[in-house]
């Protein structure tokens, strides 16, 4: 999917919501555990109930890898289900990969070609030759970790390197990479006060913003400081939406929480 197509969807749906499909078998409704593929059935119900309210889905790969081959099969079924039934939805493989060049190429093939995700999250720590193999794929997006939502972000990301915080070095250096137009960045919703500075370096790039809901980030603050001319934000909520209820009404409850966020977004967009 192109960035232009993503922007069209945001305007059409009045939403820049990304729903995180972080499926934990200990948290999903117990009646699903009797089914052959509880992870996929849970995702399918959530997708059926929420696809009109969001523009992106983000399965975090750890939640699938944790269940071995069955988890990977559920991931494959989930992405195929989205691509077949809702091809207008932007998909993010939250895999946080990145390695020496030839290994990165294989990661890129796994997520862009085999699974057909639109994008993948990547750690920038190994630098240019670990990121560029992902950028080489046309109409696919590489979402680089810039300033993450967790407390550990302060261990390295905000430390000064040659007179500048490391996350700013990541933003600036990555702009020089070949095919850098395929870059997006992760900035945590819990770091709203940093968005003004970030927008000075990357005024138009899309930002994936996790951390609203369960981690306490504030949607209004993120939008106030982080929104660009073309919106430029994908706000993710995982647990705050998909675990709204662990009863038989779980999909409706998820849709209600997704709608609350979507309506807040609609108000902001129409201001
Ligand atoms: O790359 C991410 O999506 C990510 C980056 C970050 O800085 N913080 C962060 O929470 N995430 C992911 O975003 C999701 C947040 O989930 P909730 O806190 O349940 O909404 C999880 O899948 C995290 O792994």
UniProtKB/TrEMBL annotation:
GO terms for biological process: 'de novo' pyrimidine nucleobase biosynthetic process; 'de novo' UMP biosynthetic process. Pfam families: OMPdecase. The keyword Translocase does not apply. Keywords: Decarboxylase, Lyase, Pyrimidine biosynthesis. Residues 16-254 form the Orotidine 5'-phosphate decarboxylase domain. Its EC number is 4.1.1.23. It catalyses: orotidine 5'-phosphate + H(+) = UMP + CO2. NCBIfam families: pyrF_sub2. PANTHER family: OROTIDINE 5'-PHOSPHATE DECARBOXYLASE. HAMAP family: OMPdecase_type2 (MF_01215). This is Orotidine 5'-phosphate decarboxylase.
């Amino acid at each position: 999917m192109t960035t232009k197509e993503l922007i069209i969807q945001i305007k059409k749906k009045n939403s820049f919501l990304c729903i995180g499909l972080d499926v934990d078998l200990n948290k999903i409704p117990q009646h699903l555990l009797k089914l052959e593929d509880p992870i996929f059935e849970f995702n399918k119900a959530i997708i059926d109930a929420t696809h009109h309210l969001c523009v992106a889905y983000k399965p975090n790969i750890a939640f699938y890898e944790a269940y071995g081959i069955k988890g990977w099969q559920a991931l494959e079924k989930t992405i195929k289900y989205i691509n077949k039934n809702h091809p207008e939805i932007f998909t993010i493989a939250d895999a946080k990969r990145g390695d020496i060049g030839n290994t990165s190429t294989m990661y890129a093939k796994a997520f862009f070609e085999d699974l057909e995700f639109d994008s993948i999250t990547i750690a920038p720590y190994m630098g240019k030759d670990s990121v560029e193999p992902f950028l080489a794929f046309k109409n696919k997006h590489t979402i680089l970790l810039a300033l993450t939502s967790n407390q550990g972000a302060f261990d390295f990301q905000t430390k000064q390197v040659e007179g500048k915080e490391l996350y700013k070095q990541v933003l600036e250096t990555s702009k020089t990479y070949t095919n850098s137009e395929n870059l997006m960045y992760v900035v945590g919703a819990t770091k709203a006060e940093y968005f003004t500075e970030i927008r000075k370096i990357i005024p138009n790039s899309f930002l994936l913003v996790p951390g609203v809901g369960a981690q306490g980030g504030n949607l209004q603050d993120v939008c106030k400081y982080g929104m660009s001319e073309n919106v430029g934000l994908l706000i993710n909520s995982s647990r705050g939406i998909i675990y709204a209820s662990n009863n038989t009404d779980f999909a409706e409850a998820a849709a209600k929480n997704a709608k609350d966020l979507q309506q807040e977004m609609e108000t902001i967009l129409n201001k």
